[in-house]
Design a protein that fits this description.
This protein is of the alpha+beta class. The protein is built from nine helices and 19 strands. β17 and β18 form a beta hairpin. The two termini are about 25 Å apart. Bound molecules: flavin-adenine dinucleotide (FAD). Flavin-adenine dinucleotide binds next to β3, β8 and β12.
């Protein structure tokens, strides 16, 4: 097997940063994937699995190993029951195209996840979510290749350990498996639930939505509305929008136990902040990171060298022809600022690869 050498990585990521890969291979078959992993093992190379590169920042020095990009394609209907359908989708299918296609079929459950860039295989890793839906709610199984044994394994949804931007693939089993396919179960009738207040408000203002009882029409309207809202925040990839050269949200919303929340609340109150919008569920408190960043004194549009905070979303860090080193400095400055302000350490969502 021959790997490509010294391949530029920046163009393979949405944020457009990073040096070169010493070796690069795009795996479009399972056999190719296994052979590449065997070869890397033989040569004692480090391996990084790359999907669509929309949640990845490579170091300015690149990656001194093998970047293995997923290129496994295909989707099929496994079974159709009275009011659900079971589909299997290969890892390198485009997530947003999958959402569009399922909506066109009249299958729901993914419509609020319209516009999220990247591949299907990355969706379970951080249990992607937006506008009140999470991929993990619809994924019934994840098929993986064990990177050591090259065995194919299947995990049920319960075994995946999905929670807010988290799964076993990002936690205890980080870098242990290559996800090769996922199975999703989607309702084919019934009503569509819109849980996210901003989206519900926008939809309720559209007469066309309330007039139409047709599920396909409703799903298309939700998708269009989500894409419109996301575009106002530069949260869809758009070559003509410089603020979308990002990884989406940079920081995760902190989720706290009651006692931690109490401590942070007192600290915020001492700074004159009494109106933090907090989402409570199962005695856990989810705090809006964007609010904390702005309250700590950072502003939308603020720049540091060639990188900055998006003028349209305080959670997105954007590359304006800067470098990964600059981005890391900006990230750390914000983390320190928020920590000094309220004692919270903001966790980072994208994957730093060096
Ligand atoms: C403009 C913009 C908006 C965004 N909005 C959202 C949002 O609303 N909600 C949200 O959750 N995310 C969002 N994101 C983040 C990103 O789109 C998702 O995390 C997406 O799932 C990443 O997919 P990818 O294929 O690009 O992953 P990559 O960046 O290529 O990889 C991400 C991680 O997954 C691993 N990985 C990828 N594929 C596989 C595989 N097949 N097997 C094993 N490991 C794998 C990689 O090693 C890496 O650790 C946004 C990003 C951008 C740029």
């Amino acid at each position: 097997m021959k790997f490509e050498e010294q391949v530029p990585l920046a163009d393979r990521t949405s944020i457009g940063l990073g040096g070169r890969a010493r070796y690069f291979y795009a795996a479009d078959t399972l056999e190719g994937l296994k052979t590449a992993l065997r070869e890397a093992h033989k040569q004692s190379l480090r391996v990084h699995i790359l999907g669509g590169g929309s949640n990845t920042v490579f170091s300015d020095n690149g990656f001194d190993g093998l970047v293995l990009q997923m290129a496994l394609k295909g989707r099929r209907v496994l079974s159709t029951q009275e009011n659900t359908v079971l589909i299997e989708v290969a890892a390198a299918e485009n997530w947003d195209q999958l959402v569009e296609w399922t909506g066109q079929q009249g299958w729901h459950g993914l419509e609020c996840l319209s516009g999220i860039p990247g591949q299907v295989g990355a969706a379970p890793i951080q249990n992607i979510g937006a506008y009140g839906q999470e991929a993990g709610e619809r994924i019934t199984a994840v098929e993986c290749l064990d990177r050591q044994t090259l065995e194919i394994l299947r995990f049920s949804s319960a075994e995946c350990g999905f929670s807010y931007r988290q799964s076993r693939f990002k936690g205890s089993d980080r870098d242990r498996f290559v996800i090769t396919a996922i199975t999703l179960q989607l309702p084919t009738d019934g009503d569509v639930q819109i849980r996210y207040p901003e989206l519900a408000r926008n939809i309720s203002m559209q007469a066309e939505y309330s007039r139409s009882a047709d599920l396909r029409t409703r799903l298309a309207l939700i998708r269009r509305t989500v894409l419109q809202i996301r575009a106002t925040k530069s949260m869809v990839l758009d070559a003509s929008d410089p603020h979308s050269r990002s990884c989406g949200s940079w920081f995760m919303n902190p989720v706290l136990e009651q006692s931690e929340w109490q401590r942070v609340r007192e600290r915020l109150a001492s700074q004159g902040i009494h109106d933090l919008p907090v989402y409570t569920s199962n005695e856990r408190y989810k705090l809006p990171a964007a609010f904390l960043i702005e309250a700590a004194g950072f502003t939308k549009g603020q720049r540091l060298y060639g990188v900055g905070i998006s003028p349209r979303h305080a959670l997105a860090l954007v590359n304006y022809n800067g470098s990964s080193a600059e981005l890391l400095e900006l990230q750390q400055t914000i983390q320190q600022g928020v920590f000094d302000f309220c004692g919270l350490q903001l966790d980072v969502e994208p994957n730093w690869i060096s």
